[in-house]
Structure formats: structure tokens, C-alpha cells
Amino acid sequence: MLDRSNPPFARWFVGGKTNLCYNAVDRHLAARAQQNALVYVSTETGIERYTYAEVNRMAAVIRSLGVAQGERVLIDLSADDPEALFAMLACARLGAVHSVVFGGFARRRTWQRALMTPRRC
Fold first, then answer.
1. 79 falls in which pLDDT band (50, 70, 90)?
2. 52 lies in a domain?
């Protein structure tokens, strides 16, 4: 599980594969698709509840935009919405790499991050 063969460097789970979307969503779909996966409390919109099935649909939406394994996705966290979390999980499922940008970045840094991510739309 922990490879210490190259001190001072250590590597966890060498050769292993995991998928965060599987651990967070997929394994619950069969028995709990209509149960709450996320309860979002916002000072702007109140309480919003999302089922495992709703969270699961985001991967299909992102895939329909042409995102595939190894591609980069830029996610804007400046808005007050839980869909950004769904998008991160969907990227994990598809094997896409996501980069998160939020309102705290200076304008120049936000632009630099956007330029590093090839855009489709």
C-alpha cells in the first residue's frame, strides 16, 4: 500500500486505480438513486436537495459536450451553486482533469488559468 523504496519519497497505492465519483455517487445509485446525495444550504437560495440520480446526470451532460478522458475542464466556482461539485465528480468519472477558478483570483490569474485550458464552448 505504501511504497518507501525511493527515500525520502513515498508513494501510496502504486498501480492502484480509484474513482472518486464511484465512491461518492455510483455505488449508491442502485439502492438509493432517489435519496439525497447532497443537501445544499445557501444564504441566497435557501435549502436545495439533490438526489444521487441528479448528481449522476452531470457526467452525461459533460460527456455530451465532448469531454473525454485526459481532457482539461475549467470550472468556475464564483457562483453560489452546487453544480460545480457535480461537475468535479463528473470529471472524475470521465477521467478528465479539472481546474477550479473562483472569484478570489485576481483578474490576471483567472485569465491565465483560462488560457491554459483549451476551450470547446
1. low
2. yes
CA distances 18 to 12, 48, 66, 92, Å, are 12, 29, 23, 9
Cα(53)–Cα(44) distance, integer angstroms: 24
- pLDDT greater than 90 at residue 76: no
Cell readout for 36 is 439525497
Distance (Å, rounded) from C-alpha 114 to C-alpha 97?
14
Phi first, then psi, for residue 59 (nearest 5°) are -60, -40
pLDDT at 80 over 60: yes
For the chain, what is the domain count?
1
With respect to residue 5, please indicate whether it lies within any of the assigned structural domains: no
Q: Which domain holds residue 91?
A: 13-116
At 38-52, the pLDDT tens digits run 898 988 888 989 898
Q: Which CATH number covers residue 88?
A: 3.40.50.980
